[in-house]
Design goal:
There is one protein chain. With about 100 residues, this protein is an all-alpha fold. The chain has 2 domains: about 1-45; about 60-100. It contains 4 helices and no strands. The longest helix is centred in the first third of the chain and has 43 residues, at about 1-45. It is rod-shaped. The termini are far apart.
Length: about 100
Amino acid sequence: MGDEFSKILKNILKSQQEQTEAFIKSQSLPMAKLVDSVAHMVSKITVAPSFESYQPSKEPFPGYKSRLEQHFSACSVIDQGDKKSKILAWLVSETYSILG
């Protein structure tokens, strides 16, 4: 009887393990898609530290532009709309009023 109980218990454990492995396997693709989706959302809300405003008296624009591009690259800001929004937010009020 003890031997039979042991076999039944082993079969139950084996069955549970197979079911668990099948469940994990079935969830791997949806989880991978979810992780990709979250990563995509997080990449869109990149928080880049502010960058100093352009001041013509301190440096020529090509130098400023180059430094700004490096800043965006270092902070993983790749979307053109995000770049535009950040640049406009960093403008000093005098420069911003010229655009208005």
